[in-house]
Amino acid sequence: MLRVKGKKTIDGNSRYQIRRKTKPVYKGTLLWMQGERLRLEGVTLNGSGRSSSVSGDINGRLLETVSGMVLLEKGARLCANYNLTSFTDGGGGITIHSGGKVVMREGSVIYDNLSITGGSGVRVEKGGSFVMEGGTIRDNVVTGQKTGSDFDGRGGGIHNRGEVWIQGGAITGNIARGYRSGENAGGFGGAVYNQNRLRITGGIIRNNQASFAGGAVYTNEESQVSLEGGEIYENRAEDQRGGGIYISASSEVRVSGGKIWNNTARHGTQIFLSSTSSGILTVSGGKISGAGTAVWNNGASIKVTGGEIRGSECGLRNLGVSQIRGGNISGGEKGIFHDEGKLFLSGNIQVNRIQITEEQHVTVDLKLWIRGGCELVPERYQEGKLLVRITSGEQEREVQKNFSLKKRKRFILEARSGGLYIGREKYVIKFDANGGVGEMREQKVYVDETVPLDPCTYKRSGYGFVGWSAQLIPKVTEPGMIKWKDKGSVKNLAEDGESILLYALWVKAPMFSRGEAELVFYEEEQVDQEIMHYGIRAEDELEGDLTGKIRVEKIILPDFRELKGADRLPTDSDHLGKGSIVLSTANSFGVSSQWIQRYEVISNAAPELEVSDRYYFVSEIQNSQKEEILQDFRRSIRFRDDIETQEQLEHGLEISWEKPDFDRAGSYRVHVRIRDQFGHRFYMKPGEQRRYGRGKLSAKEFAVHVVDRENDITIEEEGYVRFISREYLDSLSPDSVWKTEKLRRLLEDSLNKGQEQYEEVWVITGEDKKRIKSFIKTQENPFSRESNKKFIEMFSRLRKK
Fold first, then answer.
1. Residue 714: partners with Cβ closer than 8 Å, 6 or more residues away
2. I want to staple 128 with a disulfide (CB 3.0 to 4.6 A). Which of 11, 87, 96, 535 is the partner?
């Protein structure tokens, strides 16, 4: 080790070098500075790292200074010092301890030094300082070995814990290489790793590389970086972060001049702010530009008051807190990508475009003027979304002049209370009742969008709504007058901000004329649609008779249940009572009217039916006289109904009988059936007779008796047989023919009847027969008890002539 005290100058005349002894291997510092001043000029300090005989484990620096100043003048060269395996605490080229200072001037160079600790070119400890007025620091490499301070690849050119001031010269080609521990890690600050104060006022930092972050500069802890001049360009943090500068922990970077441009990284090609930091980036001047996203704020703070930030895709991506108070921020796709956090705008600024993610908005907190205007690009277009919150106190319309909305469909930027929101180009549709009554709110419709009109809520007595027209039409006479149907689709009826008035169109509803006040139907009657609207007419103002279009809309049953779509009215015993039939009809415009027809279904009792046995003498009627026999049968049948007439009931009379033989004595059964609900109803055409329901049935049977003609040899004239119940026999007078013993015996013998039987027989002449028939016709019910009594009284004294 060469110790330097006092003021010394080592001048190698550009031909000489101080070279580390290699045999045996020398481990230690080559030149130790502890004096007032040491000037190195035209001399090379060579660590012998390239000699084949060197083991590669020097474990020492080329130059260490603990006090005084070292001046690296023209021709001073520090190179080839390789510390590859020992964890030497310090750089491979120069280590500046507290109290030491190194000034590097034009023509000097620190190059080709390798280290596994921080700062392979220059290591500045706390309290030390390094001023680079010129010269070159190039092709130095730090290789990370493990995690932890100084051993994870920090600062390929310079590792600073003290003060570094770069006024000129060039830092180029230096590498901070990481290490592999399961995955690639380490490698920070290809040119400079800063842990204290770094000031850049000139020079260039170019073509340096970091494996992880800070291709040119990585600043950490509570450090400060001030960029006032110079250029940082073409540095790389391949596929990682901060191609130019990486800001971590609580460090602060101020950019007031110079240029950071054309650096490369996956995130933040020029500057990256760590999400785990409370770091601050202040830009008041200078120029920051490059490919991709130039400045990436991943969770820290940025304040821009001047300068220029420009990225080929994006100038600034914000996920922290960014305040734009001045300067120019631009990008190919977006000047600012506001992804998360807070973004404040104010002052005289220039931002070409801001992209805003779904949940974010921009805040204008002070007076704002954006030169040339700023286009807002929301990630999702949704009407009513807040894009700009205004807390500056300025009028929303004034702030709106600074912004425009990226065009998409017909979305627009709207100024509302407290901010700027996404709106839509729209117009207003207003409605006029045109003779109707009621209210309809105006309808707001988006331009270029097809929407249905609001349902018409206007009403007009006696009329039906048929549609809308932009012209006032007092009376609709043909469909072509209707422009839009109810709830019809519309598109672009007016321009943005305009309004259009639509008039309601009316067609007079069809008129019903009354039929029956109330329809009365019988139980089990068949009532179809035609019967339900019997006698009702419908007429239309334009189309005339609409009676044929009357339909049963629904039936309200006696129990108030509604029956829709029914072809028949229920009339069974479960549906007796009063109900309503709702009828409707419509014209060709679809305008309909209703009519309520009342009805009642009443119960129906079966007809009353009475029959009695018939007696004929043998050969009294010829067997061939069927019609005469049948008519005679009919005359003997008595029937009646509370509702239907005798004439109506006769249509439902049925007689089925065994064919009697009138040539010999005998008895034959005859079956009689009669059913009601058959006749002339209110809905039938004149003269029409047809069954209108199943009706109620009554059925009985009687016997036809054929008896011997000769009852007595003394009887020469034709007689007729009449039977009378025994209960009436005792009421007759003693001289009544009914009580003539001789005659009774003859009749009993001829009819084969005994006294124990129920009937008694008497004989009358043909004249008596006429009188009897005349009597029967005058009776309401000839077989009632009362009429039988009268019959007995009238004919009991008849005698045989």
1. none
2. 96
CA distance 29 to 147: 26
Q: With beta carbons less than 8 A apart as the criterion, state whether 231 and 257 touch.
A: no
> How would you list the strands of the sheet with 537-540, edge to edge?
511-513, 537-540, 544-545
Cβ neighbours of 427 (radius 10 Å): 18
Q: How far is 772 from 768, CA to CA, in rounded Å?
A: 6
Q: Which of 108, 270, 296, 139 is nearest to 207 (CA)?
A: 139
Residue (of 336, 168, 352) closest to 344 by Cα position? 336
Q: Are strands 666-675 and 697-707 parallel, antiparallel or unpaired?
A: antiparallel
Q: Distance (Å, rounded) from C-alpha 462 to C-alpha 624? A: 72
Instruction: List Cα–Cα distances, 186 to 141, 177, 268, 471, in angstroms.
Output: 13, 7, 18, 78
Dihedral sign for Cα atoms in the order 746, 751, 752, 756: negative
Check residue 94 and report its DSSP letter.
Answer: E
Is residue 386 within 8 A of residue 419, CB to CB? The reply is yes
Distance CA 609, CA 348 (A): 114
pTM of the predicted model as reported, rounded to 2 decimal places: 0.65
Q: How far apart are CA 411 and CA 429, in angstroms?
A: 19
Token pair for residue 143? 């290789």
HSE at residue 301, side-chain half, CA atoms within 13 A, is 11
Residue type, 252: E
Angle at 72 between CA 67 and CA 76, to 5 degrees: 135
Rg, Å, the chain Cα set: 62
Nearest Cα neighbor of 550 from 580, 582, 517, 584 is 584
Residue tagged 């009819």 (tokens): 751
Backbone angles phi, psi at 600, to 5 degrees: -140, 135
Distance, CA of 201 to CA of 14 (rounded, Å): 29
Least confident of 201-205, 540-544, 593-597, 648-652: 648-652
CA distance 3 to 65: 10
Across 550-591, the runs of DSSP E, i.e. the strands, are 551-556, 562-564, 568-569, 577-586
Question: Which token pair is 427?
Answer: 């117009």
3-state SS record for 431-456: EECCCCECCCCCEEEECCCCEECCCC
Residue in the structure block whose two tokens are 């901010």: 419
Q: What is the largest CA-CA distance in the chain?
A: 197
Least confident of 269-273, 467-471, 653-657: 653-657
Q: pLDDT confidence of 734, banded at 50, 70, 90?
A: low
User: What does the pLDDT look like over 1-21, one tens digit per residue?
Assistant: 678 788 899 999 989 998 877
Instruction: Give the tokens for residue 391.
Output: 């807390």
Rounded to the nearest 5°, which phi and psi values hold at 542?
-100, -35
Contact 600, 518 (CB under 8 A): yes
Name, in order, each residue with C-beta under 8 angstroms of 380's C-beta and a sequence gap of 6 or more: 358
